[in-house]
Specification:
16-stranded antiparallel beta sheet, mainly beta, 40% strand, Jelly Rolls, single chain, two-stranded antiparallel ribbon
């Protein structure tokens, strides 16, 4: 993406109205606790509901479509960070209007992960101190922790196994653990910051949190790419095995959309 394309996307996104004033909504249905819509507006930095497609920017690879205004598609890569063009990932329809994908199934010999490209708007935009993350996932059998999501090893990581999920804020020296009920259940993880305090909810139940230590950012003062399904080392490591049907990152402390 050249500078002109980047600027056009940024201007277009900034001009979008809030969802309450006519923005687009993604319909959510068939939940135990009904969530009628998930609004998408200029504060939604990324909203991936796991719809696979051929990448549009010329890369010979599979992409996951971004439903935010910024078109931050996730590109499927192998462990050496090279694009992957052929891989079966979809495992049926999600109840939030997208697809369920399987990351690193048992019959796949080579691990892979998804990442926002370095020339994407997401990778060029610091998230800031106020944010909300929604992540819906189902780990495969096995209690060993694997990296489900990362904004950089030293910035922010979510690790999951069949028995627990761990949320790491390395700059703050925080490692928050929540127990899971096994590999067969979908888990809805919500992480939110108001700029001073971080709170977690899992399946709409309150989890641990902490207050920000003065003088250090919660995440990073610099922008960083997002990786789903591995830790962004070189090569990528700690690959996650399991299913994912939604990841959403917002630069406001929006309420838990899984529970409303």
């Amino acid at each position: 993406m050249n500078n002109t394309q980047w600027l056009k996307r940024l201007i277009a996104a900034a001009a979008l109205p809030l969802a309450a004033c006519g923005g687009t909504d993604t319909v959510v249905e068939d939940r135990e606790i009904s969530v009628e819509t998930m609004p998408v507006n200029g504060d939604t930095l990324g909203f991936w509901i796991m719809q696979t497609e051929t990448c549009l920017d010329g890369a010979a690879a599979i992409c996951i479509n971004d439903n935010s205004p910024y078109s931050n598609d996730l590109v499927l890569e192998d462990a050496s960070l090279q694009p992957v063009a052929e891989r079966y990932m979809e495992r049926g329809n999600s109840d939030i209007g997208g697809k369920i994908i399987q990351i690193n199934a048992d019959d796949e010999a080579l691990p892979a992960q998804l990442r926002t490209p370095e020339d994407s708007l997401f990778a060029a935009t610091p998230i800031g101190e106020v944010f909300a993350i929604h992540l819906r996932f189902k780990p495969a059998a096995g209690e060993a922790l694997q990296t489900l999501m990362s904004l950089g090893t030293g910035v922010f990581n979510v690790e999951a196994g069949s028995a627990s999920v761990v949320v790491q804020f390395p700059v703050q020296g925080k490692r928050l653990l929540l127990p899971l009920e096994g590999p067969e259940r979908w888990n809805e993880l919500y992480i939110v910051s108001d700029g001073q305090n971080v709170s977690l909810q899992l399946n709409c139940e309150d989890g641990p949190g902490f207050g920000k230590t003065a003088g250090a950012p919660l995440l990073s003062r610099s922008a960083s790419a997002l990786m789903l399904g591995a830790r962004p080392t070189t090569p990528a490591s700690e690959h996650f095995s399991g299913q994912v049907d939604m990841l959403r990152v917002s630069r406001v402390n929006e309420a838990n959309l899984f529970c409303q």
